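Contributing new complexes? Match this layout with nicotinamide-adenine-dinucleotide.
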Amino acid sequence: MRKRVLVTAMSFRRSKEALALLEDNGCEVIVSPYNRALQEAEMLDLIKGVSAIVAGNDALTEKVIAAGMPVLEIIARSGAGYNTIDITAARRFGVPVTNTPGANTRSVADLTVGLMISLARNITRLNQSLHAGNWEKSVGGELGEKTLGVVGTGNIGGEVIKRAVAFDMKIVAFDIYPRRDLVEKYGVIYLPLKEVIAQADFLSLHVPVIPETINLINKATLPLMKPTAYLINTARGELVVEEDLGNALKQGVIAGAALDVFNKEPLQDSSLNNLPTAILTPHIGASTREASDRVGIMAAEEVIRVLSGAAPRYPVN
Ligand SMILES: NC(=O)c1ccc[n+]([C@@H]2O[C@H](COP(=O)([O-])OP(=O)(O)OC[C@H]3O[C@@H](n4cnc5c(N)ncnc54)[C@H](O)[C@@H]3O)[C@@H](O)[C@H]2O)c1
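Output block (do not edit by hand):
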């Protein structure tokens, strides 16, 4: 009997190559009927009898994983972050969880720099204004000679730094594991977190969601930023207390913010809605054709490997 693979990850569904790879290797592919990340109850409905899940940011809780046993053999996250998967419970049930490190790095780094330029030059606001029939100009700023503060210098943070250096930016950074290559190649200066927050003209977040990073940007840390500074978050919504950021933007504590990720997605009523100094995108960091193909192939290969009895290449648990 063909093993059933449930695909919930939206990026994976876009990759014909990745879907074909699963089918060509004898899998029966079941595509989620939802065009978004699934809630626990929705996952519970779909998980029974499934040998593998190619997951997006779905609620893969202990209850869901338990309901998938004993058939479930692997949860392959199609992407980097796995904060919505209970990896401890998966380990307990002997189900490997894998991700696709580095596969969407370029896409997220490109978006981050795009958001920085949009903030600096008011591109999104002026676009709306001109579409509304106004010929309104505004004076922006250059990236060159400005300080970029990077929190988390892993795959994406490192690629953002590479791009920022091409714009003649100075880089300060915080990471629990500083990277010698970034210091030597790009002159990155590692500093304590508070110093990075205080020195940055653009502060960009690239850490995972773990207890130490949840609510990192809040009403205590926002006032440490320069009033002319911009915050960019293309990592995870949980890193920022949205209400505190909304208040800081309204009160001019900082100049602006660009966010691709939110506490609750899809974003609905939020203190950030309708703020002219906030640029919001609907979690599109990895939404490029190139990243979808790369991520999809990596996730499909992990599924095939594990379903054929081999060890996964990129386990996170
Ligand atoms: N917007 C999107 O669509 C999108 C797509 C992919 C990834 N992401 C998110 O981007 C973030 C970064 O992804 P990545 O692939 O670069 O991850 P990565 O693992 O390569 O890098 C994370 C870095 O954070 C550092 N770190 C961990 N804990 C820390 C702490 N407490 N303080 C300081 N530094 C710490 C690590 O040492 C590492 O260098 C993740 O949150 C991921 O979920 C978002």
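Reviewers usually confirm one structural detail per submission. For this one: The chain has a mean pLDDT of 96.
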